[in-house]
Structure formats: C-alpha cells, structure tokens
Amino acid sequence: MKLKLALAGAGLFGEEHLRVMSRMADVEIAGIADVNAKAAESAAQRYGALDWGTDIIAQLDRRKTDGLIIATPGQTHVPIAKQALERGIPVLVEKPMAMTAAEAATLVEREALSQAFILPGHVLRFSKPHRLIADIVGSGGIGRLLSLTARRYRDDSHALRYPDIDPIMMTMIHDIDLALWMAGAPVHEVLALRNPAHEQRAQTVVTARDRNGAAWTLATAWTFALDAAPPDRLEIVGERGGIDFETGAYLRQYGAKVREIDLAREEPDDPLYTEVAYFADRIRSGRPPETVTAKDAHAGLLIAEAALASLSQGGIVKLPG
Ligand SMILES: NC(=O)c1ccc[n+]([C@@H]2O[C@H](COP(=O)([O-])OP(=O)(O)OC[C@H]3O[C@@H](n4cnc5c(N)ncnc54)[C@H](O)[C@@H]3O)[C@@H](O)[C@H]2O)c1
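Above: query sequence and nicotinamide-adenine-dinucleotide SMILES. Below: predicted holo structure tokens.
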C-alpha cells in the first residue's frame, strides 16, 4: 500500500518536497494545506493530491495520513507539529524546528509522550559528501578536531522574502547543525557579529568554542545579487590533517590519507530525496529517526539563540552546562 504523506505550506520549499514526493512510487500525496487557498489548490492540481485546503489540522482529521511534512514559516512549526503528534502522525519539520530553544524543548517532550516521531529537516545530514566528511572526522581520520569553518551565502532576495526570521535561524542553522554533528560537542561560548548591524541584508559571522576546545567560525550573508552567491564551503582542521569541501565541486582530505574527490563527476547529491525517503522508511518500520533527531535540533537552537543574544547585547555569550 502506498504511504499517504501530507504537506503543510505550499510555498517555495513545499514545492521542492512535492517534487520529491511525486518521484516516489510508494508515496501518495494525501493532502496539501496552505493558508493561501490558491497556493494549496494549484499545488494539489499539479501534483494530483487527494485533498487540499487552508487548514492542515482539519485535513488530518478528515483524511487518513501516515506522515506530515511541515514546510510553513518557522513560527508555525511547533503548533502544527504538536497537533500532528497528538494524532499519532509522524512529522518531518523543516528547519528551524522551532523559533526558540524553549519551544523546541516542549516539542521534544511531546514527542516522548506520542506514538509518533519528529524528523527535523536538517537536510545536510542526508547529503552524501557531508556524510563522508562526518565519517572521516568521526573515525579519527584527521585526528582531534581543532577548528571548523563554514560559509553559506545567499542572495539578498532572502532579506525581502524572509523579513520575520533572522538569517541565523534561517540559513546559519544548517551550519550550526553541521558543526554539532561533525564536532560532536556542545558549545561553551559564542560571539556573533553582523555588518551592517541590525539589518537582514547583512553578513553575520559567528565564532564559537565547543566543549572539546574546537573553534567554529560560521558565516552567512544575505547580500549577494540573484544567482551570484559564491558556493557553500566547509573547512575542517584536525590535529593530524584536514578537509576542504565546496558544494558540487570538491572534497579534499589531507593528512595520513590524502584524497581528492571531484564532485562534479560524481552522481548528483539528492539530499532532500534521501531525507524524505528516510522519513517514509521510518514511518513504515515504526523506528524513530537516528540520523537526526528533535534533540539535535534543540541543541542547535540553544546555540542559535546564544548567537542572537550576542548580537543584541554585544560580546561573548556563555552557554550553561
Ligand atoms: N531545508 C532547506 O534547505 C530549506 C530551504 C528553504 C526553506 N526551508 C524551510 O521551509 C519552510 C518554508 O520556507 P519557504 O521558503 O517555502 O517559504 P514560503 O514563504 O515560500 O512558503 C511558506 C508557505 O506556507 C504557507 N503558510 C503560512 N502559514 C501557514 C499555516 N499555518 N498553514 C499552512 N500554510 C501556511 C504560506 O502561505 C506559504 O505558501 C521554512 O521553515 C524554511 O525555513 C528549508
């Protein structure tokens, strides 16, 4: 029997999820809900959804749904996810899972009380080259981690399209999650700088030190012209080597083992497909996610929140623990 997946939020990224679901032979699009009725109806027609409407909860109550993908704005993630969990429906919640760490903690609690699970949409956990980097670091291939530097630059339309969400919560949350995953340690202290200050169309640089002493430097900019942002990069230095990575271009390992992978010659990475397939697989098997969990998303939000506090009050913010 086909798995019945529903979607809340038929915007830009909801469309990406629909494209992915429509490529899966064992998945049926049970319903699409968007507060913008036209967006929901048009997406339902294009993707042959069984149902559509403006209220996702009403839809969950009237139509059998095996899983829900939440691709609405961040402010709505927690209330929708809670309602789905209460109905025993597993959720794939786009990032940021919640707008505050406290909200994320309540979601973790609700998940513990529910038959269902949460898969946070930290899509890079499902990316092949990122998984290889995590394996190299995790297996000690470059020795103890000394530093991790990541950049993720986007065009300045983001500043207009997402006026209600900080670039740290929207874009840098990917790198915070990557750093937590690769470094495997929570953060001790954070300093965030933004230029121009108090603007969305700005560059933000966050420096953090984790509890193993590794230094993180994460940079996000929503300043580039459309289609003119430089590619995402990740650089990791260990005590016995390092890794350089550029999305779609190369992955280089230095140290006892030296290698270079020309990513342009590899099969294209399809992390969103892998993420949704994993969601479907976990629903079918009834096993909760391990690749990334609501607790991981909560840990990332604690760091994001500390970075936001550093921006607003200035100076270094120490995290408890
Ligand atoms: N994983 C990634 O790389 C990635 C990339 C882009 C966006 N996202 C995430 O996806 C989500 C959506 O982003 P987007 O760029 O598609 O935004 P968008 O504004 O294009 O789309 C959001 C849609 O949600 C609808 N909506 C708002 N409130 C709703 C509600 N309560 N119920 C149903 N629909 C509602 C809006 O009408 C809109 O159509 C965000 O959480 C964003 O952070 C993730």
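The mean pLDDT is 97.
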